[in-house]
Structure formats: structure tokens, C-alpha cells
């Protein structure tokens, strides 16, 4: 059977991954683990943009303007920034992408970038978590009102000793807009609208591997490694 990617965790030789997961799925944490344990360069779009916006390059200044206005940075600007990192002597041979590509246009562009550098991706991992599970997990987050404390709690995994009160300073807890179920559902809606196309795109290229994204961090990491190993086994 012809497979689009190869994986050999023992030899750690593999290793161009694109990690896709809904917001709040723990994708960033898994990307970090993959990077540390498999020696991959971690490309987090958020980091790239923060990095760039601190420089006085034309791209950095443009990225900054969009972010300050609370807008999404346009495809073409992100594409340029990613392309720059995959060109020249510093280009990585092993990497995990985290947050890019996030539109079909970016995915198509990225295909071309990698092809030009002879760095075909080995696999695209989709961390699959049900929407309601994400709402449940992330909608349980509460933050201390005290601006000097800002401790965070999770009513499922790390509840305060007294409901609604901070353990550290006894101030009231509140729910940030970002943690409200309605906001989370809206973000998930945007994610699905953009990513269904991307997932189909990689499925056609036989690169897509679906991994259950539930359980604790190590369980999910184990699922990823297992899925990659299994999928690359030709038998
Ligand atoms: Zn507090």
C-alpha cells in the first residue's frame, strides 16, 4: 500500500508535520511536545507574528497594524512570512506547523513552498475533539477579578475551594469573554468553516491522520505517535 508519509519514532527521522485542531483542543501543547521529543522546529503562527511585529521590517509593521486592530492577518502576509522562513540557509528540515495553514489558500501556497524546497510533509495530524467537549472544557475557566492576582480556575479540573471565590485573595471570580460558551462556539464555527476544506485537501493527498484529542496530555500525545506509527506501517 502506498502511503503519503513515513514515521519511525525510534529513529526519529521523520518529520515534517502539520498539526490541525480546533481552538481549545490543546493543539499548541501537543505541537510543543512533538517539537521537544522529536527534535522538530516548532512553527507557531502566533509566535512568528509576535516575533515579526517586534521588528521594524515592512512585514512586521503591517502585521502589527492588523493585530492592533484586532483583525486577522491577511493570507498573503502570513504566506510571505512563512515562505521567508523556509528559504535560505536557516530553513528547517524537520518541523511541526501549529496554526498554519489555516485557510485553503494558505494550504495551497504552503504546498508550493515545501515542494520548491524538497520538503514534502510526512503527515497532517487532525486532533479530533467534539465541539461540546471543547465548550465544556474551556467554558469552565474562571479568572480572579483582582487585577494584581488574576489566578485562573477550572470548575472541572481545578475548582476553587469556595465556589466563585479566589483561593489566593478571596476576590470574586469572573468569566472572561474568551472563555464564555457563546464565544467558544463562535470560534469553533469559524474553525469548521475554514478547516473542512483544508482537511479534504490533505485527505486527497493521503496525508491526513485523525487522532482522538480527548484524555490528558500524555494520552493524546500517545494517540498521535500511535496513529503515525500505525498509518506508516505498510502491512
Ligand atoms: Zn485572586
Describe the overall structure:
This protein has a domain of 156 residues: P-loop containing nucleotide triphosphate hydrolases (Rossmann fold, 3-Layer(aba) Sandwich), CATH 3.40.50.300. The longest helix is centred in the C-terminal third of the chain and has 24 residues. The N terminus is likely disordered. It has eight helices and eight strands. The strands form two sheets. A five-stranded parallel sheet has the order 2-3-1-4-8, with helices on both faces. The chain has a three-stranded antiparallel sheet with strand order 6-5-7, with no helix packed on it. It has 235 residues and is α/β, with parallel strands linked by helices. Helix 6 packs across helix 7. Strand 5 and strand 6 form a beta hairpin. 44% of the residues lie in helices and 14% in strands. Zinc ion binds next to loops.
What descriptive keywords fit this protein?
alpha/beta; Rossmann fold; 5-stranded parallel sheet; 3-stranded antiparallel sheet; binds zinc ion
Amino acid at each position: 500500500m502506498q502511503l503519503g508519509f513515513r514515521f519511525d519514532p525510534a529513529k526519529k527521522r521523520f518529520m515534517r508535520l502539520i498539526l490541525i485542531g480546533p481552538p481549545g483542543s490543546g493543539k499548541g501543547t501537543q505541537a510543543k511536545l512533538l517539537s521537544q521529543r522529536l527534535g522538530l522546529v516548532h512553527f507557531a503562527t502566533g509566535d512568528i507574528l509576535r516575533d515579526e511585529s517586534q521588528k521594524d521590517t515592512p512585514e512586521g509593521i503591517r502585521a502589527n497594524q492588523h493585530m492592533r486592530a484586532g483583525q486577522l492577518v491577511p493570507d498573503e502576509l502570513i504566506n510571505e512570512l512563512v515562505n521567508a522562513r523556509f528559504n535560505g540557509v536557516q530553513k528547517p528540515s524537520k518541523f511541526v506547523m501549529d496554526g498554519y495553514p489555516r485557510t485553503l489558500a494558505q494550504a495551497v501556497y504552503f504546498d508550493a513552498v515545501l515542494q520548491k524546497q524538497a520538503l514534502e510533509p510526512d503527515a497532517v495530524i487532525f486532533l479530533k475533539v467534539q465541539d461540546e467537549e471543547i465548550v465544556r472544557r474551556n467554558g469552565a475557566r474562571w479568572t480572579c477579578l483582582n487585577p494584581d492576582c488574576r489566578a485562573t480556575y477550572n470548575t472541572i479540573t481545578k475548582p476553587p475551594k469556595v465556589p466563585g471565590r479566589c483561593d489566593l485573595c478571596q476576590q470574586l471570580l469572573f468569566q472572561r469573554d474568551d472563555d464564555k460558551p457563546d464565544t467558544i462556539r463562535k470560534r469553533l464555527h469559524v474553525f469548521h468553516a475554514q478547516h473542512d476544506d483544508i482537511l479534504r485537501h490533505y485527505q486527497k493527498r493521503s496525508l491526513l491522520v485523525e487522532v482522538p484529542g480527548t484524555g490528558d496530555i500524555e494520552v493524546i500525545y500517545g494517540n498521535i505517535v500511535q496513529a503515525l506509527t500505525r498509518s506508516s506501517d505498510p502491512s
